[in-house]
């Protein structure tokens, strides 16, 4: 039986194989760039939203994939089966942006996923790069010392569950972007600890936070 998660996972995997984000795949297929965003997969009332057969047909046409290739991304016995020879090897390029640029508008969708053609790319091992929507931020300046130095690259996974003690990237609605440690999160506020002891800890009303994403890997 086809599940909601399995269908969306197949779309994410197809995007990855063509070195695209879900937003990039939608754009290539001539769809609204937000069509495949994580935030669009559930309705405001919590009901599941499914991709239409028309949108699936359009992404197949745009990528040159067959319906059999698309179906191969659906899990069988708990595993996705990718037929050998049908696609190139797993790509290891992921979108890259500097922290200074990350505060500007247009680079992220409303869920904190990459949503612009203005990104650079960086090559990384398969483990972090195979996750859908993952992107990289290059540290600029010394504000994150001693943990992260100028030029280090942080791999960020939007949509991943965030827990107390996780290292996160947070963007405020005013455009400020920062890497911190999550200290506390409530339905109304977020408290984060600074990585650099010379910088103060911060607290925000949840309404003032545009998105927060977990740091899953760092190149140092």
Describe the structure.
The chain is of the alpha+beta class and 220 residues long. It has 2 domains: 4-80, lambda repressor-like DNA-binding domains (434 Repressor (Amino-terminal Domain)), CATH 1.10.260; 95-219, Umud Fragment, subunit A (Ribbon). 20% of the residues lie in helices and 27% in strands. The protein contains 6 helices and 11 strands. The protein has helices at residues 4-17, 22-28, 53-63, 67-71, 99-102, 126-129, and strands at 75-76, 79-80, 93-98, 120-123, 135-138, 153-157, 167-172, 177-185, 189-194, 202-205, 209-219. The chain has a 9-stranded mixed sheet. It is globular and about 55 Å long. Mean pLDDT is 80; it is low at 77-91.
SSE blueprint:
Blueprint: H1 4-17, H2 22-28, H3 53-63, H4 67-71, E1 75-76, E2 79-80, E3 93-98, H5 99-102, E4 120-123, H6 126-129, E5 135-138, E6 153-157, E7 167-172, E8 177-185, E9 189-194, E10 202-205, E11 209-219
Organism: Aliirhizobium smilacinae
Protein name: Helix-turn-helix transcriptional regulator
Keywords: DNA-binding, Transcription, Transcription regulation
Question: What is the number of domains?
Answer: 2
Mean pLDDT level: 80
Helix/strand order: HHHHEEEHEHEEEEEEE
Rg, nearest Å:
18 Å
Number of helices: 6
Instruction: Fill in the CATH topology of the largest domain.
Output: Umud Fragment, subunit A
Biggest sheet, strands in spatial order? 4-3-5-6-11-7-8-9-10
Helix content: 10-25%
| Largest sheet data | 9 strands, mixed
Please mark out the parts with pLDDT under 50 across 5 or more consecutive residues, or reply none.
Answer: 77-91
Overall structural class, as computed from helix and strand content, comes to: alpha+beta
Tell me the name of the CATH homologous superfamily of the largest domain: Umud Fragment, subunit A
Number of strands: 11
- The CATH class of the largest domain, by name, is Mainly Beta
Organism: Aliirhizobium smilacinae
Keywords: DNA-binding, Transcription, Transcription regulation
Protein name: Helix-turn-helix transcriptional regulator
GO molecular function: DNA binding
